[in-house]
Amino acid sequence: MLVVGIDGLRSDGLEAADTPNIDVVAANGATTMYAFAGGVQGTETEQPTLSGPGWASALTGVWTDKHSVTDNEFSGLDIEKYPHFFQRIREVDPEARLSSFVHWIPLRTLAADGDVDEVGDDRRVTDLAATELATQDPTVVFVHLDDVDAAGHSSEYSPTEPTYVAAIETVDGLIGELSAAIDGRPTRGEECWATVVVTDHGGIGNLHGGQTPEERRVPLIIGGDGVRTSVVDKGPGITVVPSTVTAYLGIEIDPEWGWEGEPFGIPPE
Ligand SMILES: [Zn+2]
After folding, report:
1. Is residue 85 a part of any domain in this protein?
2. Cα of 104 to ligand 1 centre, how many Å?
3. Given CA atoms 73, 78, 80, 81 in this order, what sign does their dihedral have?
């Protein structure tokens, strides 16, 4: 299973961009342009639409009332109680191969504890992840790509900003390389693969962190073998990524983990 985290991806930016590779994932699975970052407004789960709390939620399956992260230093992170979902998979399946490739180095604070833990820019992490997908037998590969967020900060998070849209199209090309690596596997025909596309927040102007719809509304996609095709108008929070991945892998979710939200796009049986 491949999980691609595209930092700072607005739903309307994705819709405006020409993204043939993400479109293939979406066409073979469940898609929403109405998932949300930033927790549930007005509750104790509400959190800044920043990368720290955002990725903490997408990778630990809980909001700030549990993971305690409110900044980009991950200060206060309750990693014992709410670890990276790789650690939950590891507990259930000690044989799992779990590989993480991240552009934004502070993400390593989450201590994925994977078999592979690499950092680099978008180009480098894509190359390393493609090699992993093509030549190893990973259970889950997580790739974090940061250039879309950088484009938003340097220009504007907007579907009408050419720099931002072009960055999304470049990332789509990288996802195409990762998909090709999966499809080129010699054993591909006997395997089940799915790809999740998730982000940590949107943006408004050249910033993010607040609770505007532009910062909160984000896309969420899972597509691949055996995923039912659907388009969902009211999407879940980004905390559903761990449950979605484990459900796809056929791993039973322990209520003790405290994860928020049901698996996205995966039939119950
Ligand atoms: Zn971010």
Report:
1. yes
2. 9
3. negative
